[in-house]
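User: Could you go from structure to sequence for me? I need the amino acid at each position, not a summary. Structure tokens:
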């Protein structure tokens, strides 16, 4: 999904959390993808592959922390986990991308 579509969604239907997959952000590589949406923080998983990579936009009003204690790379998949505090409770959200496997 192109970043202009993200901006459109945020303007008219302001979600608190937006999960994205296939960002293709690679470890230690500067690419042209600009993950900025005003009013949101962006976190993503790291990958050494050319596919996948998950990310999450979290609204500035949401208190959260990355859950690095939950494995983020399993066989043929990548994930990112966050813990959100809301209404005096803790919630865990995950974004999972399963790599296409050809048999």
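Assistant: Here is the amino acid at each position, in order:
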């Amino acid at each position: 999904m192109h970043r202009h579509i993200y901006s459109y969604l945020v303007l008219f239907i302001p979600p608190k959390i937006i999960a994205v997959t296939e960002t293709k952000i690679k470890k230690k590589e500067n690419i042209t993808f600009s993950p900025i949406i005003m009013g949101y923080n962006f976190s993503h998983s790291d990958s050494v592959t050319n596919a996948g990579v998950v990310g999450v936009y979290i609204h500035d009003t949401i208190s959260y922390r990355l859950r690095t204690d939950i494995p983020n790379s399993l066989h043929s998949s990548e994930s990112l986990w966050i813990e959100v505090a809301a209404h005096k409770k803790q919630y865990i959200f995950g974004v999972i991308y399963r790599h296409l496997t050809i048999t």
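One structural detail worth keeping in mind: Residues 3-98 form a domain with the Deoxyribonuclease I; Chain A fold (CATH 3.60.10.10).
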